[in-house]
Amino acid sequence: MKFLDDKGIIQNEEGKDPSGSHARKWRLMFSKNGLIYPQVKQKDGNQADLGVIDDITPFGRTFLRADTYPAVQEMFLRAMSVEQFPLPDGKHFFSPLRWMLAIMLELERRTGTSEISRIEFALWGHTTNPSYDLMSVVDSILDLRERRSHAPAKRSFDKQEIAKRGENYSKKSDNFLDYSDMNMRYLRISGVLQRKGRGLTIVPSKHLLAEKLAKPDASAEPLMEQYKLLCGGAPLPTDDLPVAKALLEDLIQQMKDRHIVFDISDLPLTTPTEINIARQRLENILSQTDEIRYASEQCNQWQEISDYMSLLIKGGGKLVYDEDNAIEVPKDETPAYLEWTLWRAALAVDHLVNKPYEVRGFRLDSDFLPVSAAGGGKGDLYCEFEDFTILTEVTMSTSSRQEAMEGEPVRRHVSDAVLRYDKPVYGLFIAIRIDTNTAETFRHGVWYAKDDVKQSLNIIPLSLEQFQRFFVAMFSSNRATPDSLKDLLISCGEGRETMEAPTWKQCIEHLIAEKCTCFLA
């Protein structure tokens, strides 16, 4: 736990978790996913027959070599396909992912869509298993859906349904909603499921794979055999040649139906591995196409983007619009969400000449949510417009160490961009709060490039609240253009050499207030 805290992976406040429950949860997830050898109970077999408890497994070492997000998703999919969760009888085991896919495919057979809402998942998804009859579970979901559609007050209706369902549920009724969002998130890591409102749906390009994985009944195989499968790397239907071919052909047809151009004529298609490589290339093209469409929608999402900024300013949290719509910034993931929110803001302004996936350095999941913050070595967001480029750097750091952490890399990244682009480059540095020492470093904006070539860099530091005000004013007045952003950065940079850092910060605040007033006048 101390190691995770030191590395910034968790934020363990002093004295808040003296028992180390964080560490136990991480250890549990490592073993449940087959990355380390789980502890074998005496009734299930001998530990020596599996491996030394907590040692990294062969599958764990394969996981370490997964260097792309689709590869990581496939690792989780393999782990989640293993039937290692016990039924109440203690003799049979099941995979929650396979069970949920069976439910959703039966829903699709009856209704035409695999979508399952949050309350349906809470009451009849993650709190059921193959000891229930599949058809009865789907009957219950559809009955709930029908009655809820006529309920005048959805929240009151949901509370009553939770209380009623809790009467026949062996665990705490709080579990229904307390764990539903987390469990849906686990399932989405597989890459087979994605968000639909606050619920789930099957990813269209993975539909055939979902059909192959779905399983409504449990396994009678001993748990030790499942552990061996898990730790060695569980097989997937895509490892089988006919299935790999069928999945590729299905994806090709989907892309033709959507008139998406592709070419895999240079790839051999003899073995399952070769066929899966071709499929992954097409999935990447499909993902990029969907991202371009997502980008085009952002100008209509500016209010939600602003709401995300408000959550980030507060350090994370959730905003519920209604029973079926909410946004959330997990407190442990604020750095990734800050980059993602500013990326969406840039897409909303529009007129970018580079592709949306070329702007960002961080990874997205199939719902276009951030997986992690961008890696080091380059800037966070490269927003290239027709006549200029804005390199945006962001940080959640607010302490006096902000300058030490950001002063050198931000100037270096902007310097590299100046040399790279044959057009003016403006640096935009955004933090929750701008430390005065950081402002002083950017006020000078001096950097010596190769061969001691002196550069005067234009880097403007704004607090997220300042940028939010300007962003909202632009869109509220229908004046959200790249030139409006450029004019702000130029105005904020004028005369900075003659000011002290505190004065420059005050000047920037005055200019933002002035421009917002002009927009809304």
Explained architecture:
This protein is of the alpha+beta class. The protein folds into four domains: 1-32, no CATH class; 84-220, Arc Repressor Mutant, subunit A (Orthogonal Bundle), CATH 1.10.10; 251-295, no CATH class; 338-520, Restriction Endonuclease (3-Layer(aba) Sandwich), CATH 3.40.91.50. It has 22 helices and 14 strands. It has helices at 2-6, 21-32, 58-64, 69-80, 96-111, 118-124, 134-149, 154-166, 175-178, 180-188, 207-213, 223-232, 241-257, 272-297, 302-313, 334-349, 356-359, 402-420, 436-444, 464-476, 482-493, 501-520, and strands at residues 85-86, 93-94, 193-196, 199-202, 317-322, 325-329, 363-364, 370-372, 381-384, 389-395, 425-431, 446-448, 454-456, 459-463. The strands form six sheets. A four-stranded mixed beta sheet has the order 9-10-11-14, with helices on both faces. A hairpin with a 5-residue loop joins strand 7 and strand 8 (370-372). Helix 20 runs parallel beside helix 22 (501-520). The radius of gyration is 26 Å and the shape is globular. The termini are far apart. The model has no long low-confidence stretch (mean pLDDT 92).
